[in-house]
Amino acid sequence: MNRRLLRAGLLACSLLPLGVADAGFDLQGGSVADPVSLPAASVEMRATVADFYAQRDGRLAWFDEAGPRPAIATLASALRDTAWLHGLEPDHYLTGEVVQKLERVSAAPDALTTAQMVRADLVFTDAWLLLVSHLHSGRFDPHTLFPRWTPEARRQTIIDALAAALDEGELTRRLQAMAPNHDDYRNLKRHLWHLRELARETAREAPNDERLAARIGRVRINMERLRRLPDARGEMHVMVNVPAFRLQLVEDGAVRLEKRVIVGRTGEPTPAFSANMLQIAVNPVWDLPHRIAVEEKLPVIRRDPGFLERERIAVLQGWGAEEREVDPEEVDWESLDRRHFPYRLRQAPGGTNPLGRLQFLFPNPRAIYIHDTPARHLFEYERRTFSAGCIRLEDADELARRLLTNEQWTEAMKQLEQESPETRFELSQRVPVHIVYLTVEAEDNGTPKYWADVYGRDGDLLEALLEPPARTYRTPTTTLSGTSFTGARGIHRCLVPRVARTSG
């Protein structure tokens, strides 16, 4: 038993006959000497499954007083077909245990014991919730700086979806409705269908078409990436696709502006995340990151004493009200290194300042921004991985003009012409920025676009996508507490063990 799983608090279900209190079981926190074997519950769905039944006051979901509910008859096809259409692995959801339970229910519904009904109910619930969760927000931790939902909000959404599906008897429709409702996702889903049809048609002539198989895999990967994006991207938003080296301004579902960008080097990749743009800086100063200051600039300063003055770079100490400028001639540059560098370097606007004339600010912990650049010749390269992580934008003036009000843009133009000190303009509304990593896209007419995997991420993601979710555990001897779990033939308890912390 993995000790980390024990510390997490595992979902357990113990069948308690009506007379259990008379047998001496303490309902307020007794112990189970003989642990029961649990269904193959997915690790990530334990808390959600527990919440689902708690909100039902412990009532079974797939069985009622009359026996199996009609929705059970369509569960297998709903899981299998929906997972397949969306590029997921059907047997990750329609597991052997799910199939076994469905066959047993179908063959002899009246012969099911209470224990069999409870176990089947949990297995069916777990499978459905797991698939709807993956459709809703992706299989994996999105690693975004600003997650789409808090865990509680995400959990409640998929719980509500299952409750509605059971009430309506529309399992497939509800599953499909939880997938992204955006053209880029639907276009990729159609392209996946086309590729699979092509593979089926050519199976006799080319049964092992590696090129076609690789394309299918890449489409599946990018559907997974799109499932991570927020549903509400913003009526006006900025979308940057790193492998395409492209920025788009989207308004009311239409692309209003498209420009080339330069992104991070392979050693300093531009991360994928979402944030809100709040300001545009005109004639921005550049506070050099510590790494660049000590690794790139310090050796130059040692060789060329006039470098700082020529590049208009100030040496600073302190922060805020304590900030002061230091005379470079008073600094012993030879004594400094990466571990000991108590200064900050700040480059004035203009000249070789790598931020150029404009900087688009959307606060994020990694200090990644979109900005202008004086090195415009780099846009002529096809593979534009030259930055330290930030996004350099071609024709930055055009984006600024579309985001600022007319009055703001007029004032910004004056500031630019006069090369005034840095000025920041507040946007009239927040503009979401989505930085994505999509190596395959499909247009509305079905035309696909395949981009180079510049950071080499596709292989690892496909391998992870093919691996089944973590499942299956047994309960140790634990102290339990729980709420009533009422089924067709008795009272059961859905219990969450209180497991003592263990080392390791």
Short description:
The chain is α+β, with helices and mostly antiparallel strands and 504 residues long. The chain is 35% helix and 20% strand.
Characterise this structure.
By secondary structure, this protein is of the alpha+beta class. The N and C termini lie close together (12 Å). It folds into 3 domains: 3-181 and 464-475, no CATH class; 233-282 and 354-438, Beta Barrel (L,D-transpeptidase catalytic domain-like); 286-347, no CATH class. A hairpin with a 6-residue loop joins strand 9 and strand 10 (324-326). Strands 4-5-6-15-13-12-7-16 form an 8-stranded mixed barrel. The protein has helices spanning 3-8, 46-55, 72-85, 96-107, 114-137, 151-168, 171-177, 183-201, 210-227, 290-303, 307-310, 396-403, 406-418, 458-466, and strands spanning 12-14, 63-64, 67-68, 236-241, 246-251, 254-264, 273-282, 286-287, 313-317, 324-326, 344-347, 358-361, 370-371, 385-387, 391-393, 423-436, 440-442, 448-450, 479-486, 491-498. The model is unreliable at 1-40, 142-150 and 472-504 (pLDDT under 50). The longest helix has 24 residues, at 114-137. It is built from 14 helices and 20 strands.
